[in-house]
């Protein structure tokens, strides 16, 4: 049974943690061995909460046994543990398991344009002073920026306005506060990025970035165009099924994430996947 209640809307439902915690002891106590005096639990929600260091890490998949289900949350006892539980937000699951099911749960995580998680370990070959080479594995926790897959390398771009736009798309946050605009573009399925590296002398040729989107919200081409006169951006939308483009003007740089979300984000990323094993 599909349950993604918020699919198609930008509203983010926040789990009432106080309500859940008020009933948790009564639910969990019969589920742990009598000689186990303590239990541990964590929440699995659409967007992770900041840790003690103040940053959010993209959650990993986990397996376990479903031990309780109601209309608010699913309680999963983690595999190979006696007293560790995960509270899964019911509002974003793509299917509802039964009590007793062994499940694999995959929360939302941010990805790069190549399909890899942004926290996926990267291997590098480094060299010592004597020429000896060794392999280093790096992992960035808490998120990192990703580069737009542009048709022209940044080093070859001349327009300062275009470079500023690229930096803004790669570093400004999306409306949800967890993703960056670049992650929003990944989740919307943006591909085929192009740039117009306009010469500042020729004002009739504005700097712009274009890309193609095909999802439930929008199918067609999108261009983000810089207006030097007003120091704002415009969104030019070219629907695949309509010859009449739509133009949204007077967008300030700090509104880019919101405006892009309104026109191309189908919110299909808002899901916690549950697979019965």
Could you walk me through the main structural features you see in this protein, from its secondary elements to its overall organization?
The protein has 2 domains: 17-109, Nucleic acid-binding proteins (OB fold (Dihydrolipoamide Acetyltransferase, E2P), Beta Barrel); 154-264, no CATH class. It has helices spanning 17-28, 160-171, 181-188, 256-264, and strands at residues 40-44, 62-69, 73-78, 84-89, 102-106, 122-127, 133-138, 191-196, 208-214, 219-227, 232-239, 246-251, 273-276. The chain is an alpha+beta fold. The chain contains 4 helices and 13 strands. A 6-stranded mixed sheet has the order 1-4-3-2-5-13, with no helix packed on it. The protein has a 5-stranded antiparallel sheet with strand order 8-9-10-11-12, with helices on one face. It comes from Entomomonas moraniae. This is GTPase.
Label this structure with key terms.
single chain; OB fold (Dihydrolipoamide Acetyltransferase, E2P); six-stranded mixed β-sheet; 15% helix; globular; GTPase
Secondary structure elements and their pairing?
Blueprint (H helix, E strand, L loop, with lengths): L16 H12 L11 E5 L17 E8 L3 E6 L5 E6 L12 E5 L15 E6 L5 E6 L21 H12 L9 H8 L2 E6 L11 E7 L4 E9 L4 E8 L6 E6 L4 H9 L8 E4 L1
Parallel strand pairs: 1-4
Antiparallel strand pairs: 2-3, 2-5, 3-4, 5-13, 6-7, 8-9, 9-10, 10-11, 11-12
Helix pairs in contact: 3-4
